Amino acid sequence: MKLHLFSLLSSFALLQSVSVAASLGSTAAHDLLNRAVGDSCKAPEGQGSCLEASKCIGITYKGLCPKDVASVQCCVKKTCKVGGDSGYCRSKSRDGCSGGTFHAGHCPGSADIQCCISKSTSPAPKDCRQDLSCTFAEIEAMSMTARLHYVKTMQSKFFGPLRAGNQFRAIEGVITFFIQNNLGKPNTWASYVDAGIVEGIQNGGANTLGLHKKDGGNPGTKLWSDFFQTMKGGGYASRDKHDYGWSISEQAATDYGKQLADRKFKMTEQEKRWYKFSQLFRLIMRNKGTSINAARAAIVALAASTRNPALLVFLPKVDDLIDWLTDITKIEPTICLSKAVWDAVDPDNNPVELAIVFPKIILQLKKCFENN
Q1: DSSP readout, 250-287?
Q2: Helix, strand, or coil here: 86?
Q3: How many helices (H) does the chain have, and how many strands (E)?
Q4: CB contact at 8 A, 53 and 74
Q5: SS3 assignment, position 121
Q6: pLDDT for 111-142, tens place per residue?
Q7: Nearest to residue 250, comparing CAs of 159, 306, 170, 156?
Q8: Taking every pair of C-alpha atoms in the chain, what is the biggest distance, in angstroms?
Q9: Which of 1, 23, 100, 286 could pair covalently with 118 via S-S, beta carbons 3.0-4.6 A apart?
Q10: What 3-state DSSP class applies to 59?
Q11: Which of 273, 362, 271 is nearest to 325 (CA)?
Q12: pLDDT in tens, 204-215
């Protein structure tokens, strides 16, 4: 009997609520019976959403979300700006501006609605570049312009005591070429490879300076650390030994970046060309005698094929050309070689053969060399 009576009372209450809602009109009835947290609402300051008042960063209004509990109110978010600072319009009397200050005259509506500017008291996040502690992911997320600045900063602010303040101008040249040709955006194959290069240099330098002992899993770190230790101790016994140490360190870091890139991306034709260039540069650094012979043969062949014997006058300068090209303290050689190889190398022609590539690029290299 009690259960039957309870059912009757519940049915009566439901009929009464529907009757009341119907008397308000179809739109009002729908709002009354169906509005919930997250629904839209209309306030004097404009369209809003039904939210817990404590979660509203804007202006709150009671009574505009009637189906919800009293703590759910209509929240209207309006942004405002005072000088160079951005904030939200809030009610000075209802909402307050916890941790910030109110500024009148920057929000529409009554004088009670003012711009709340919050000043964060939490310390700014540490920039990993300040102590050479960037992870691979942090470097990879940088634009090429940011990476170029970072490589320059490492040399100017950190690597001086290691006698290596000018040892990565060649890397600057490659990154500059990327920037000029809109290559290497974050989350691309080329970006991953380049991030491996920069990470290896960074960690090798940081390890040698005693800033940290991390290697990031990058095998280039140990080789670069050995390179820095040798430079710090007075340098290499010869240019050839220096160039060999530099090139194997850069090769290891590049291969690591490529390994990560290959797991996630497929090389584009453009990226194939760039990788061919990087391989060619290191090949020349480690095989100068072969490179000089190939360059001389290319000039002789060009002089014959173009019927331009004047090219032969350049033969005595080929040694100087190769020395200039592999001078990692200059930015111009890698920019020039990048462009020359980019324009000349067929990405489907494997492997890179000096005898094939040099005749295509030697005139451009000669021109750059003579202009510098």
Answers
A1: HHHHHHHHHHHHHHH----HHHHHHHHHHHHHHHHHH-
A2: strand
A3: 13, 8
A4: no
A5: coil
A6: 999 999 886 544 556 799 999 999 999 999 99
A7: 170
A8: 119
A9: 100
A10: strand
A11: 362
A12: 999 999 999 999
Q: What is the pLDDT of residue 25?
A: 40
Over the Cα atoms of the chain, what is R_g? 34
Output the CA torsion sign for 165, 170, 175, 181.
Answer: positive
* 120 Cβ contact list (under 8 Å, min separation 6): none
Per-residue pLDDT, 156: 97
Phi then psi for 82, rounded to 5 degrees?
Answer: -130, 105
The amino acid present at 343, given as its one-letter code, is D
At 344, which amino acid appears? Answer: A
Q: How far is CA 244 from CA 32, 236, 238, 286, in A?
A: 79, 10, 10, 6
pLDDT on residue 5: 36
Tokens matching residue 292: 């000089």
118 DSSP assignment: E
Backbone angles phi, psi at 89, to 5 degrees: -75, 130
Structure tokens at 132: 């050479």
Given this model, what pLDDT does residue 250 score?
97
Contact criterion met (CB below 8 Å) for 89 and 59: yes
The pLDDT of residue 226: 99
pLDDT of residue 4: 42
Write out residues in the chain with pLDDT < 50, as ranges. Answer: 1-36, 121-122
What pLDDT is recorded for position 279? 86
Question: What are residue 147's phi and psi, to 5 degrees?
Answer: -65, -40
Give the distance, in angstroms, between the CA of residue 106 and the centroid of all CA atoms in the same chain. Answer: 36
Residue with tokens 């590539």: 357
Distance separating the N- and C-terminal Cα atoms of the chain: 105
Amino acid at 207: N
The answer to whether the peptide bond before residue 351 is cis (omega within 30 degrees of 0) is yes
pLDDT confidence of residue 125: 62
Across 191-225, b (16+ Cβ under 10 Å) vs e yields bbbbbbbbbbbbbbbbbbbeeeebbbebbbbbbbb
Which token pair is 70? 């009293």
- The residue written with tokens 């959403």 in the block is 49
Q: Looking at the DSSP assignment, which residues form a beta bridge with residue 116?
A: 88, 102
Asked if residues 116 and 102 have their Cβ atoms less than 8 Å apart, the reply is: yes
